[in-house]
Each structure stands twice: as structure tokens, then as C-alpha cells.
Amino acid sequence: MTSTGDTHEYDFVVVSNRLPVDRVVDADGTESWSTSPGGLVTALEPVMRAADGAWVGWAGQPDLDLPPFESDGIRIVPVALSETDIENYYEGFSNDTLWPLYHDVISSPSYHRVWWDSYVEVNQRFADAAARVAAPGAIVWVQDYQLQLVPRMLRESRPDLIIGFFNHIPFPPYGIFSQLPWRTQVIEGLLGADVIGFQRPADASNFSRAVRRLTTHATKNPAIEVARPGQPTRRVIARSFPISIDAASFEALARETRVQQRAREIREGLGNPRTVMLGVDRLDYTKGIGHRLKAFGELLAEGSVNVEDITLVQVASPSRERVEAYMNLRDEIELTVGRINGDFGTMRHQAISYHHHGYPRDEMAALYLAADVLLVTALRDGMNLVAKEYVACRFDEDGVLILSEFAGASDELKRALLVNPHDIDGVKATILQAIAMPRAERRSRMRALRKRVIEHDVARWSRGFLDTLRQAAADRHDRIAPLELADDLEWTLDRRKGD
Ligand code: GDG
After folding, report:
1. Which of 44, 36, 42 has its CA nearest to residue 20?
2. Does the beta carbon of 358 lie inside 6 Å of ligand 1?
3. DSSP state of 381
4. Which of 135, 261, 293, 398 is disulfide-compatible with 9, CB 3.0–4.6 A?
5. Which of 253, 284, 379, 383 for mutating ligand 1's site (highest number of atoms within 8 Å of CB)?
6. What is the C-alpha R_g of the chain?
7. Is the CB of 168 inside a 6 Å radius of any atom of ligand 1?
8. Does ligand 1 come within 6 angstroms of the Cβ of 243?
């Protein structure tokens, strides 16, 4: 890592709430940075290296005011957040207003004007940081719902930039979105971008509808003509670009002998039940963890399954632990797990093996390999990468994916067993179907799922988005050129008239 604080300008700038690096402080106080191996980093790293790129974001801790530095070949530009910014902009407006609102109000959104004020202020800080490091005409790619005002802020200070925005979470139907007291500002904020990407076609059409209801801009899918007083009309493209994972790296991990060995150990540790079911989620109310526990608990109670034969492993990684809805959810889930284990567990077999912590990636791969059935019962989910990771790891073409139709992944993973998580009887019947599925059907379904995930990986996703963005920028110039020509012609004709 080097830290120079220079003012170099970058041709490709990614802006996201969280930086792709974590600050590590050793016992002796020495500080270093480790790159988190998330899908976004993997997808954008080659683009970053090829294009002289920088990443603007928050380092995850309060009041860290750091100069730009380099980590693993990526230029890192930290944005500082105070404890109050974290409370109001991040935990408040992002995670307690926008998150529940954009996930179909599964939990009630809170609307507070001080949170909104902080959201505006912090978005401006991110926009300013990006504007400072972006080279003339650079591509700036803004990520996710925490930064929806950044595109317009950037457009105003740096009209030369090519601006993209990708929303990782759903965009809600207008009937829900219209609750937001600052709905028009958010729409206009997003419309500062040249391309706005969503996970599903339905999200893109919800957005276009909100544009029609709240503004006078003309929409003709996927284009929106943004007309602002005193400015030339701009064309914005709003469409879906379903995100994916680095499938090859998950498969490579799963193929390692030590990971396969670990998968066998996990099954042994569970008492070698006939069926291992798995759930992996951030502990979030959108993930439908309670619904899947209810279905499983009822199957045990009715005797449709026996605790000797089946175990549910639930990884619930800690998330947003200072937001009240998340504290309540944790209590609720852990009470239910305790009840089910108390009612049905034996000295040798637990019904649910519950883990409230995060695991390293190789342990996740081993869990995916150990699981006969993966349960994804999200009530609303932008995509759900866990479903795709499971499929990528199953090079043995085995395993059954039960997937909620309310997760974006269900648009693509059609040969999963699709469920409506609100229909508890339906979930129960699908679990029984998964347990009893013959090997030939498991193989044929998993093959089809794998084809999709391997062909449509995260590199293809970022290429698709960036190609559209470059095309939109090229079209912008083509559109401006004839306009300028027309102006010139008019001026020439006027002069002739005057002559
Ligand atoms: C948002 C949207 C959209 C989880 N626990 C551990 C762990 N994870 C990893 C998973 C997966 C990721 O976290 C979770 O991704 P999801 O897509 O399932 O869900 P969100 O966190 O809600 O992500 C979502 C996504 O953005 C991308 O656009 O799909 O809809 O809500 O990669 O593997 N990883 C490790 N240990 C854990 O304990 N190593």
C-alpha cells in the first residue's frame, strides 16, 4: 500500500457507499488494508487496471479522514463519515427509510427530515470526491440506493462525465414509492445518469412509471428524454442488467480437495443425516428466514420429516445490528430456532444448526457442497447471489435449489423449484419434492441452472453495462452534433437575411 494523496485524474471511477477494502489493525497497532473479494471488485478489477481507475467510498469506520492510497493495484479514495452521518445517512435514511420502502414495505419505513438532510449532504460529499478525481470525459459508475442523488450532483458540477448508476435492490411499484416525501428529488437525482441499471425488467418499468407520474420528461422504453429549462434535452437509458457472480472462482474453490473434505466433515458433524438443507442470508427481514423456519417446523410437527433424517443449517450473518427492526428480527428468529430445536431435537440430532456469524469464502463453498437442498425464501430480493453461488459450486451437477419467485434470480434460474414464500403449504410441499427428487432430475435441473450462471457471470454483467454506457455517450455526441449543425445553419441563414 502506498499513500501519496496526489491529485491524479482517473478515466474510470466507481463510487459506492462501502470501499472494497477493510482496515485491519494488528495487535502491535500496525495498520493495513485487505481487499474484500466481493463480486463487484472481481468484476471491476480488470476494467480498473485497464483504464486507470479509482474507487470512491467509505472505509466503514467513523471519522476516518484518509488521503487517497493504493491497495492491491486499486486507487482508493476514502470519503469520511462522522458518527452522526452514519446514524442519519446510513443507518437512518439508507437502511431504515429506503431499504424497507424499496422492499415492498415488509417492515415500516421511517421518514425523518433530519435523515433526508444528511442523505443530501453525504451524497454531495461523495459527488464532490468523485468530481475531484475524475479525468475530463471519464466514466463514473455510481452503485446503489445509498447514492441516488450523486448522478445529478455530478452532472451539475461535471457535465463532461459519462455517468452510470446501478441499483442493486428492487425499485418498488409507484403505489409504494410515492410514499417517499422526497420522491421527486430522488427520481431527478437518478436522472442525472446516462444509463440507470436495474436487476429486473419489472424494476426498470416501475422506475419509468415513477418518472411519468412525477415529472414531465417523455419516456419511450428504455429511453427517457430529460428536458430541463435552459439545458439541451438529454437521453437517459433505464433498463435491466441482472447482476451475477464470479462463477469460475466459486467452482474452482469447490473443486479443491480440502473444500470437498471439509464438506464431508460438515455432514459428519451434523450426524450424517440423509438430507442437509441450507439457508445462507444476512440476518435481514427481506430474506424470509421466519417463513422457511415455519414451513420446516410444521413438517417436523406433522411427522412428514424426521429429525434423524434431515437437518437445516441456517447461516444468518450479522447485519445492521444497530437498527431496531434488525434487533427485533434477531430476537424473533432465535426464539423460533430455539423452540423448534427444543421441540424436535434429540441428544444426537438437532433440527436446526443455527450460526449467527460470517464464514470465510472456502467454508461457504464447503457448505454449498454439503447441502442437498438450498432454501432461498426471500420475500423481496434484488437478485440473491447466494442462489447463484450454490449453483456455481455444484460442479457435481447435484443439489436442489428452492428459490423464491420474489428474488430477481428467479427470472433467470427457471429450472429451480420456484416458490411463493408466503404460501407455507406450498413451501412445505416443495421441500418434500426436493428431498424426494430422483438423481436424474436433480442432474438435469442443475445442468440447466449451471449453464445459465456460468455463461452469464459478473464479468459479462459489467461488460454489458459499460458497453451500454459507452454507446449512450457516443449517441449523446451524435445527437448534439446535428443540433449544433442546425444551430450553425440557422445562424448562417440569419446572417444571410441580414446581409
Ligand atoms: C444486495 C441485494 C443483490 C453472506 N454471508 C456470508 C457471506 N455472504 C455473502 C454471500 C453473497 C452475499 O454475501 C449476499 O448477497 P445476496 O445477493 O444474497 O444479498 P445482499 O447482501 O442483500 O445483497 C441483493 C446483491 O446486493 C448484489 O447486487 O443480489 O438482492 O440485496 O455473496 O455469499 N460471505 C461470506 N461469509 C458469510 O458468512 N464469506
Report:
1. 36
2. yes
3. B
4. 135
5. 383
6. 25
7. yes
8. yes
Give the C-alpha separation, 81 to 131, whole Å.
18
pLDDT-based confidence at 37, cuts 50/70/90?
A: low
Q: How confident is the model at residue 7 (pLDDT cuts 50, 70, 90)?
A: low
Cα–Cα distance for residue pair 417/420, rounded to 1 Å? 10
Compute the distance between CA of residue 238 and CA of residue 235 in angstroms, rounded to an integer: 10
Report the atom number in ligand 1 closest to the C-alpha of 381.
Answer: 30
CB count, 10 Å around CB of 50? 10
Q: Give CA–CA dist 499/495, Å, rounded.
A: 6
Query: What distances in angstroms separate CA 299 from CA 304, 305, 375, 481, one per listed residue?
Result: 5, 6, 15, 67
Farthest-apart Cα atoms in the chain, separation = 102
pLDDT-above-90 percentage for the chain: 81
pLDDT exceeds cutoff 80 at 213: yes
pLDDT tens digits, residue range 430-449?
999 999 999 999 999 999 99
Three-state helix/strand/coil letters over 405-460? CCEHHHHCCCCCEEECCCCHHHHHHHHHHHHHCCHHHHHHHHHHHHHHHHHCCHHH
Task: Check if the beta carbon of residue 214 is closer than 8 Å to that of residue 184.
Answer: yes
Q: What distance in Å separates the CA atoms of residue 64 and residue 82, rounded to the nearest whole number? A: 8
Mean pLDDT of the chain: 92
